[in-house]
Amino acid sequence: MRKVLLIFICIISVNTVSGQSINKTLAPLNKEISDPDSLGSTYYSQLFGFNVASKANLKLFEFVYNWMGTPYRFGGDSRKGIDCSRFVNKVYDYVYDVFLGGASSRDIYKNVIPVGKDELKEGDFVFFKIKSRVITHIGIYLGGGKFAHSASSKGVSVGNLDDPYFKRYFFTGGRIEQQ
């Protein structure tokens, strides 16, 4: 009986000592990751494959992620299918609380301040003239040369402005004037 009691006391004391050292080891780590924005930006950086700034609007990245894979449907306005301008309208309504009125890419362009590719900021519009003289496609700039859009080939996805296809047809960026 004494042997069992002695073994039991040894096990408890070893677990207590090792538990304290683990807690001391984890304490600095817990301080480093206590900022939820930092965790969110790290999470979305891994999901999207580019560095998402710690000051990024995580609501934008969450919205895009939740819609990824939704098929393209011309005139569509739901998860069953959505086109590029309706997707942009939904992003602005949900993320920025700005109602664009269901406007087409050309209508949106009429109401923005043009912005060069090198001046794009997260949330800006990106406009394309794909095999046309008029604007035919729109997306939302995410940063790092990436943008979210609904493409006829992939549905809601993230594209790269440096991709040869998008590089060829990129027209301009655009920003809504701050009120």
Automatic annotation (TrEMBL):
<dbReference type="Pfam" id="PF00877">
    <property type="entry name" value="NLPC_P60"/>
</dbReference>
<dbReference type="InterPro" id="IPR051202">
    <property type="entry name" value="Peptidase_C40"/>
</dbReference>
<dbReference type="GO" id="GO:0008234">
    <property type="term" value="F:cysteine-type peptidase activity"/>
</dbReference>
<keyword id="KW-0645">Protease</keyword>
<keyword id="KW-0788">Thiol protease</keyword>
<protein>
    <submittedName>
        <fullName>Lipoprotein Spr</fullName>
    </submittedName>
</protein>
<keyword id="KW-0449">Lipoprotein</keyword>
<dbReference type="InterPro" id="IPR000064">
    <property type="entry name" value="NLP_P60_dom"/>
</dbReference>
<dbReference type="InterPro" id="IPR038765">
    <property type="entry name" value="Papain-like_cys_pep_sf"/>
</dbReference>
<keyword id="KW-0378">Hydrolase</keyword>
<comment type="similarity">
    <text>Belongs to the peptidase C40 family.</text>
</comment>
<dbReference type="GO" id="GO:0006508">
    <property type="term" value="P:proteolysis"/>
</dbReference>
<feature type="domain" description="NlpC/P60">
    <location>
        <begin position="54"/>
        <end position="177"/>
    </location>
</feature>
